[in-house]
Write the structure tokens for this entry.
Amino acid sequence: YLTIDVGGTAVKYALMNEEAEIAEKGEVATPHDSQEEFINLVVGLYQKYQDRVEGIAMSAPGRIDASRGYFYTSGALGYLDHTDFAALLADKVKVPFRLENDAKSAAFAELWKGSMQGVANGTVITLGTGIGGAIIINGKLYRGSTFAAGEYSPISTRLDLPFDTKYMWANQNSVGSLIRKYAELSGQDASQLNGRILFERANHGDQQALDALQWYCQGLATG
């Protein structure tokens, strides 16, 4: 199977068997210019491996109807809002295609082979360009009536300013906010930093990276 995980920064992909064993993997930058560019990326990955795959599974941010492969919203990728994505791929991809919200995909993976095995009630929180989530009740994914259950990004962190997007949890505790805090503390250019650089430096005892991480975790715990 070709598995594709769409993030705000990168599209990660892997060839995987039914036991989730990875044969090959890679990543490319997420297109931000147009829907056509994004479709071409997905079709290109399929064409690269089409002689080897029996199906495609894709996870992406946003409010998604997984039964239809339909994006109501798509997080940072606004060009996919209100898009019947599975239908757009139908004449370009000749194997079964399935689309699911990224955090809900993470929850399925944790229930299947991860730290939620045997857990009846819980939640998964994914930290990236935004804050995704999934809610498990009685061992099953709860989607909510509008497929938005567990979408933590828009929760306000200020009760007195509930509609000010500056105080959305996603803006307060995205990976971007962590990078900006580290840049502020260290006097560096945030555009030259990313999460991998910060964690590598934190693991080597960089005090400013550790301070930024402490600040970030305090916000997560408060949320």
User: Anything to note?
Assistant: The first helix runs from residue 35 to 49. The chain has a mean pLDDT of 93.
